[in-house]
Amino acid sequence: MKFTLVKDRSVQLTDRDLVIFQLIQSEGAKTAVELTDRFWGGKSVKAKAGFQRIRALMEAGLLERHPHLLYLSDQAKELLPKPSSVGPQ
Known about the structure:
Blueprint: E1 2-4, E2 10-12, H1 15-27, H2 32-40, H3 44-59, E3 63-66, E4 69-72, H4 74-79
């Protein structure tokens, strides 16, 4: 899925990006360190790639930082499946 930025740049969303969005939606705000440890293994080279990806998602307007915690933007929330309103009867 390609997400186009306002500044005529785009970011290609990965399955991992969507899993990150779902994690933040279900568990609440996370730090960049928590996300890189979980999804990139926390190793120095991989962690750098993780921080770069998180920055790209922030620049795309999909993640917001307040002040050290990352939250989903409204745009990112729109990309996730809506919860089913059908429950047990």
